[in-house]
Amino acid sequence: MLVKRSVTSSLAKALTGIVILSVLSTGLALTTVAGSLRDAEAVNIAGSLRMQSYRLAYELANPSHQLNRYLTQYQNTLEAPSLHKLDHAYVPEDVRQQYITLRHSWQTLEQQILAGQTEHYQHNVASHVAQIDQFVLALQRYSERKLTVVAVISVMGYIAIIGLVLFCIRFMRRQVVAPLKQLVHASRYMQQRDFNHPPLDVSSPNELGVLSQTFTAMSSELAKLYQSLEQKVQEKTERLQQANRTLEVLYRCSQALGTGKLDQQAFEKVLRIVRSSEQLQCIRLNVQDSLSEWQIGSGEPLPDLPWHSQTIMQESKPRGSLSWQHQGQAPHPHLMQSVSNMLSRGMHFNRAQKQHMQFLLMEERATIARELHDSLAQALTFLRIQLTLLKRTLAGNPEQANEIINNFDQALAEAYRQLRHLLSTFRLTVQDADLNIALQQVLEPLRLLTQAEIQLDCRIASQALNAQQQVHALQIVREAVLNAIKHADAKKIVIHCEVLETGDNCITITDDGSGIESLDEPEGHYGLTIMSERAARLGGKLQIQRISQHGTQVCLRFPC
Fold it and tell me: Is the pTM higher than 0.85?
């Protein structure tokens, strides 16, 4: 059947009319808007003439060498391109007349200024500014008229477009919607596996008539193919169910191995999932390490059933095997291969986790060693020296022995206080702490140890450092301040924290004490060394130098 009156061509004509109306209305609106592009500039320039007029009046009252420059600037503003376009014929007469009057008024005032008649300009400047105001108002109304024209054009275009749209809707309901309803009704019959649907209107001279005729022919063909398709669908469904079950088992196994800690319980859970899903009698996992072999399983094996196994490979080397027994249907080989690969990766991550935990343990021990040096090691070293002196002087000089005992008692009390502080520090976290607050907390107990003034100026954002960076930075500041208190006899200590233009963090500790003599530490002292190690762990540099004759500056720079 041939198409005599195409629906698409009819709709195309209507849509073409809509497009033409849209283009015309939009084009006229855009043309009007394009003529208003520099209206705001013209209003601004015209408004600036008021300020320049009063500035000239001020310059005339207070003579200076800038008068000629201001006159030139005023003339350039008055002759600006955005104002010159007002000379066109399409510009309203009142706007052009206002602009011409303003220019003539300025020419008169300019001649008076150049002739030295400053008092006459001072007297007429207010009326000249009033003319500028009238000109600005005229420009504003001209711009508003343009917007009104745009609105009228848009409304007329919308009305015409709505009319065409209503015509298209009526045409669609008669030529498209009614035949489509018949097709939908017939398709519902076919959806219910009934191919004897009500007859369709095949006499329409458009595409839907051809579609109805084709639909009728297709329904008869589908009735013949339905029987064969049902059988094929059933076969595909069984395969998809098997694949879905395999994916579900693999997903549950990945969840079991995706826990935070991979241990024997995680591997046992995987074996239980596979055994329950595939209805296996028994399943075992044999893992061969370099020095030992371990085995886990699920279910009780039967001596009569044969064993099936799958080798577990890792980096092209056998690392174990997965063995199972089954009484019914054998598990899918792809599933068992995937489970073996998953267990192989799990064993790899299990070893990696152990190595990582060992590394964390070693790092934590090194951290504790550094913290003990910063607190208890120095105090205990002092106690050891005092104890040696006590042993030598007890018999010969009792008064000196008593003094040493008092020093011993004070040092022991200080060591006990530092121990309590250290234990409290280990229990705290600085993950979310503000650096400024953390520094205040570190400096607060140090202020009790000295009469020196300790100032803090922290300009580093609270989220700039992570927990590890913050701990190292705090300990470096604490050690530097303690050194200034104990060894430099400082009167003023300043801590300054900022972010440099390069993006690096910079922490500076400056004191006005006696100044450091040498960077070589005495035997048995490691404070400066540990400070340098902390700076290296931050990826930065630690610089310690003497300032002029007195004082020391410790500068820590490290990247964000």
Answer: no
